[in-house]
């Protein structure tokens, strides 16, 4: 009896994770090696951050233009509605606080910005059905935000200015293990460019 086996494989290159896979000692700097600007993308834009299990630890730079300060993982969320989560942890891309003199200082922190979206491709008849939706968790398995910390959701208008669509502030009412859904209708012709 003869048995013949054959296999086909693809080689995938992985960076060596820093520290424990679930708890890196610093964030990876694998991304941002892109040499040209990526073009704008059409809707829908969707990300479940499932690549946290691939040791990437940062949002894909093919979807997210800015985001290397956000930590993608699958261990900080409690009962998350997606495979992975993007954690806004208040430290920069090399694991240091934004203000080394005062680690509780308020100011700009972690940012996650999508590639430009081709909102002009949305048919006028369908524009009333365009929404930005996501879930957020106040704490999960991490440190809770300080009083007054905010999650700010913005969109760029046709003049190139960022308009704030929503501010979510730590007001003491959030349950630390609950994911809260947010659905924001995108209304106004200034956003369909």
Tell me what the structure shows.
The protein is an all-beta fold. The chain is built from no helices and eight strands. The protein has strands at residues 64-66, 71-73, 85-87, 113-114, 131-137, 150-156, 162-169, 179-185. The strands form four sheets. Strands 1-4 form a two-stranded antiparallel sheet. It has a two-stranded antiparallel sheet with strand order 2-3. The model is unreliable at 1-33 (pLDDT under 50).
Number of helices: 0
Number of strands: 8
Q: Biggest sheet: strands, sense, closure?
A: 2 strands, antiparallel
Mean pLDDT: 79
What is the H/E order?
EEEEEEEE
- Low-confidence residue ranges: 1-33
Overall SS class: mainly beta
Envelope shape: globular
What oligomeric arrangement do these chains adopt?
Answer: single chain
Terminal CA distance reads 67 Å
Q: Radius of gyration, Cα only, in angstroms? A: 19 Å
**Share of helix among residues?**
under 10%
Which range does the strand content fall in? 15-25%
Sheet with the most strands: spatial strand order: 1-4
Draw up the topology in text.
Blueprint: E1 64-66, E2 71-73, E3 85-87, E4 113-114, E5 131-137, E6 150-156, E7 162-169, E8 179-185
Antiparallel strand pairs: 1-4, 2-3, 5-8, 6-7
Compose a concise summary of this entry.
This protein is mostly beta strands. The chain has strands spanning 64-66, 71-73, 85-87, 113-114, 131-137, 150-156, 162-169, 179-185.
Which descriptors apply to this entry?
disordered N terminus, mainly beta, single chain, two-stranded antiparallel sheet, 193 residues, 0% helix, globular
């Amino acid at each position: 009896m003869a048995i013949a086996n054959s296999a086909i494989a693809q080689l995938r290159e992985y960076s060596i994770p820093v520290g424990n896979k679930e708890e890196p000692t610093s964030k990876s700097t694998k991304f941002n090696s892109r040499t040209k600007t990526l073009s704008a993308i059409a809707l829908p834009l969707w990300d479940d951050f499932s690549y946290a299990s691939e040791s990437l630890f940062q949002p894909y730079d093919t979807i997210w233009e800015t985001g290397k300060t956000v930590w993608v993982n699958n261990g900080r969320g409690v009962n998350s509605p997606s495979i992975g989560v993007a954690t806004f942890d208040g430290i920069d891309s090399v694991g240091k606080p934004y203000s080394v003199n005062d680690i509780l200082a308020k100011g700009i922190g972690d940012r996650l910005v999508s590639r430009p979206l081709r909102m002009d491709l949305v048919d006028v008849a369908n524009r009333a059905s365009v929404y930005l939706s996501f879930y957020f968790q106040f704490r999960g398995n991490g440190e809770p935000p300080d009083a007054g910390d905010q999650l700010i959701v913005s969109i760029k208008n046709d003049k190139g200015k960022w308009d704030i669509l929503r501010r979510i502030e730590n007001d003491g009412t959030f349950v630390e293990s609950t994911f809260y859904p947010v659905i924001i209708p995108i209304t106004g012709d200034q956003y369909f460019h």
